[in-house]
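Exercise 7b. Backbone tokens:
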């Protein structure tokens, strides 16, 4: 498996875990679409969003747009840093 796909999958796992931790600390999901997916429960919604992300990455590989996944890795890395930052702030206030 190419390294960029390994990084993508790892970032999906980190985003899922940090999202769930944040929700358990009482934080809210900012994305309206992900919030809508969470109508069936926070874990279900977050997991469904990760399944969709992996499926879209697979589609990108299939249509030879691998470079897009490289850019998405930067986006998800920033998202994980954001999640960790707001978790840290929430924990420092309690």
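Sequence design result:
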């Amino acid at each position: 498996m190419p390294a960029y796909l390994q990084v993508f999958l790892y970032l999906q796992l980190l985003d899922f875990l940090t999202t769930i931790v944040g929700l358990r600390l009482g934080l809210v999901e900012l994305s309206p679409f992900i919030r809508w997916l969470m109508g069936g429960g926070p874990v279900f919604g977050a997991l469904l969003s990760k399944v969709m992300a992996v499926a879209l990455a697979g589609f990108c590989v299939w249509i030879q747009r691998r470079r897009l996944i490289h850019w998405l890795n930067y986006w998800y890395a920033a998202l994980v840093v954001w999640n960790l930052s707001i978790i840290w702030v929430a924990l420092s206030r309690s």
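Instructor comment: The mean pLDDT is 95. The chain is about 80% helix and 0% strand.
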